[in-house]
Design brief:
311 residues, 11 helices, single chain, mainly alpha
């Protein structure tokens, strides 16, 4: 069986992975308190289960972010030790499963929020599948259930260095597993990106066509979906592109290039966790009520300042 640099759990550049570890710790320190404060508002102030549909989707988005953040200390610990992943097969696969499950959930709920805004703005008279409370709860449950089997490929076969050099047996079966695994990695980025671009184009077109009515609502919708695309472009596409490059150099059997590609991929995966920090911006722009509630709860002095200005 051929050996590949991407199979190796050892970090070739310990200083670089120490830096990656520091990046993840900073992301954790900044994002975890922010997401916990948001979670508190959804549960105790907004009572999301009784609120409008977008609050239910936003709650699931923040839940996905918090579950992903819980995995970061484990990854940071092993990076600090000069290891790309845990040498314990169970820990390695469990962490990957949690990371990709919650990465997928974060992507899906960001996309749903944009589609919901698309229906509200572009087709206000059409039946919105995300509009009613019961349907929203059902959709959220289905998303989590469907994501579970789609995330399993990260545990079944070699992914990065999990179970490295132990995947023996039928080559055809291994190839099928590898293809399925990569599809589950790239599809959650590619398809939502196409949907988001479509929603943005349609909402922008509607804004240009509408000369009367609530143009402020339209502009906010355009800004929201554009922001979601920017989050995708900044957090998810770099890691997807770097993995594609890694797969290409691996197929072409270029050991030195693969070693560099592995390090770049690991670094850009660390960058992708920034979505946990950027998502709260989406919460505020999705709901003026939520923005005001957050400021009045945690930053009341800003509200006083606004009140003074109005007087």
């Amino acid at each position: 069986m051929a050996f590949h640099a991407s199979d190796d759990c050892t970090a070739r550049s310990k200083d670089l992975y120490t830096f990656y570890s520091s990046v993840m710790i900073v992301e954790l320190i900044l994002a975890l308190p922010l997401n916990l404060t948001v979670l508190y508002l959804f549960i105790f102030k907004l009572k999301f289960w009784k609120a409008k549909n977008h609050s239910i989707f936003l709650f699931n988005l923040v839940l996905a972010d918090i579950l992903l953040l819980i995995c970061l200390p484990v990854r940071a610990y092993y990076f600090l030790r000069g290891e790309r992943r845990s040498d314990n097969d169970v820990v390695c696969k469990s962490v990957l499963f949690m990371l990709f499950l919650n990465r997928g959930a974060s992507i899906v709920f960001l996309t749903i929020i944009s589609i919901d805004r698309y229906f509200s703005v572009v087709h206000p008279k059409m039946k919105n599948p995300f509009k009613t409370q019961k349907q929203s709860i059902l959709i959220c449950v289905l998303v989590w259930i469907l994501l579970l089997p789609l995330t399993i490929p990260s545990m079944l076969t070699t992914f990065e260095c999990c179970d490295s050099n132990k995947t023996d047996g039928n080559t055809a079966d291994n190839t099928t597993n590898d293809i399925f695994r990569e599809l589950t990695f790239f599809t959650p980025v590619l398809i939502p990106s196409i949907i988001l671009v479509y929603c943005t184009i349609k909402i922008t077109k509607r804004l240009k066509e509408q000369t009367i009515g609530n143009r402020t609502k339209l502009r906010r919708a355009v800004f929201l979906v554009t922001l979601v695309i920017l989050v995708f472009s900044f957090c998810f596409w770099p890691s997807a592109i770097s993995r594609l490059v890694l797969l290409m150099v691996r197929i072409k059997a270029l050991p030195r290039a693969e070693e560099i590609a592995v390090q770049v991929y690991d670094g850009l995966m660390c960058l992708s966790y920034l979505d946990c920090l950027l998502d709260p911006i989406v919460y505020c722009l999705s709901s003026t009520k939520f923005k005001q509630l957050y400021i009045s709860t945690y930053l009341p002095f800003l509200m006083k300042g606004q009140g003074a200005e109005h007087h």
